[in-house]
Design brief:
mainly alpha; 21 helices; 6 strands; 3-stranded antiparallel beta sheet; 4 domains; globular; Arc Repressor Mutant, subunit A
Length: 420
């Protein structure tokens, strides 16, 4: 694969995007230039002043650069970049290609490698010693707690972090606020006001409408402890929250029991947190359990795993509730999927004995009209007068009907999935 050079990448952007990249990377290039000249000056800046523009990167971007430099130029690495874009990716300084799995193929060109390799360690050390990384974590944590915050409220939260003894003195704090790449990337002024937005928010209008639907105004944010913000801002690009609460500890123990470990565990916790922010009571939040169903040996254990996730999701601060949890508001926003609502369909508490089974009457739903008798050869039925034995085969059913095997799962999540 032929490497793209920086200048050709920059010339592929529209001028407003080039202006944004200049602003975010600290270039003082004049915006009055034509697009071609702007791209050329930005390319020259990237080549000649890496010690400057690398200090305009978030901690996450710098650590990503270090990983890529360690791997070497041109080497494809499979990384998980999280649910929001890296500035390196947006600017084209690294090349990212999605593969068929959850990982992304990330490549650092020889040109960019030669620019950043001598400086990346120094940039990380400077970020750590100056307190900028700590500031970013706390500030990003406040944004992740609430999703969207007015700028003045955000600055009050940051001041609280500083006053609580976690941050630097007020003069240093003012410098951090002034120079922080996080402030540049996450601050917006538009019809919604002057506000800060978590990079994990991908639908601001929906968030604003959701708050109104629950009766919340922007100034009704719940005051959460500084420790919560620090927890919610560490570990970029994957954040976790409330892991030291009973619900969080139960979630960690449950995920470990079904086979999640180390980095994968962190990603799964982050996805559960993010799914809780994005939906109400949908099945997506339970994907981590469905993905490990082969390791779960009973219906009751499967239900317990789902309930642990629901309990955790109901206990954490939610963007649409302005930082309040569903429990705070006496709401049950997260509950077991429909197929587990009826205990009669959920299997016996004693799963050691094989369930009694006989051929059920085929279901008939819209688009699924064939009768079971039309699908099963009559000669075979004569050999099996009692119907198919449990686990061998089932008659057809609609995807969302209970599986005829009697497991209590929907057909699409049970034998239908195998059949497909």
């Amino acid at each position: 694969m032929k490497e793209r050079d920086i200048i050709s990448v920059l010339k592929g952007f529209q001028k407003p995007m080039l202006e944004d990249i200049c602003y975010l990377l600290g270039s003082e290039t004049s915006f009055r230039l034509r697009k071609k000249d702007l791209a050329e000056e930005l390319s020259e800046y990237l080549h000649n002043k890496p010690h400057r523009w690398m200090n305009c990167l978030l901690e996450r971007d710098l650590r990503l650069l270090k990983t890529l430099v360690a791997g070497g130029p041109g080497k494809v690495q499979f990384l998980e970049l999280g649910h929001y874009h890296s500035l390196l990716e947006v600017s084209g300084l690294i090349e990212v290609t999605d593969d068929e799995q959850r990982f992304q193929q990330v490549t650092l060109s020889r040109e960019v490698y030669d620019i950043v390799a001598p400086y990346v360690d120094d940039a990380i050390e400077k970020g750590e010693k100056s307190g900028r990384f700590e500031f970013e974590r706390a500030a990003l944590g406040f944004l992740n707690l609430y999703g969207r915050v007015d700028v003045q409220v955000f600055l009050d939260f940051v001041q609280e972090w500083c006053d609580a003894g976690y941050g630097p003195g007020i003069k240093r704090l003012l410098v951090l606020v002034q120079d922080s790449p996080l402030i540049k990337m996450c601050r917006f002024t538009d019809e919604y006001g002057d506000y800060m937005l978590s990079p994990c928010v991908d639908n601001l209008p929906k968030l604003v409408e959701d708050r109104k639907s629950y009766g919340f105004e922007e100034e009704q944010l719940k005051i959460l402890p500084v420790e919560a913000a620090i927890e919610a801002g560490e570990g970029a690009p994957f954040f976790t929250l409330n892991m030291n609460t009973p619900q969080g500890k139960a979630l960690s123990a449950m995920l470990e029991s079904i086979g999640y470990k180390a980095d994968e565990m962190m990603r799964i916790k982050h996805e559960i947190w993010l799914d809780a922010q994005a939906e109400e009571g949908g099945d997506m939040i339970y994907d981590s359990v469905y993905a490990k169903d082969e390791l779960i040996h009973s219906d009751s254990e499967f239900m317990r795993c789902l309930q642990v996730i629901a309990d955790y999701a109901n206990s954490i601060p939610l963007w649409r509730l302005c930082g309040y949890s569903a429990e705070d508001e006496n709401l049950e926003l997260f509950y077991l999927p429909d197929e587990f609502q009826n205990p009669a369909n959920a299997g016996s508490a004693d799963d050691s004995a094989a369930p009694s089974w006989k051929m059920p009457k085929p279901t008939v739903s819209e688009g699924y009209t064939p009768a079971a008798e039309e699908q099963i050869p009559q000669d075979l039925l004569k050999l099996l007068p009692g119907g198919f034995p449990f686990g061998m085969a089932v008659p057809p059913a609609a995807p969302d009907d209970p599986c005829p095997c009697g497991s209590g799962l929907r057909y699409r999540n049970c034998h239908g999935r195998i059949k497909n």
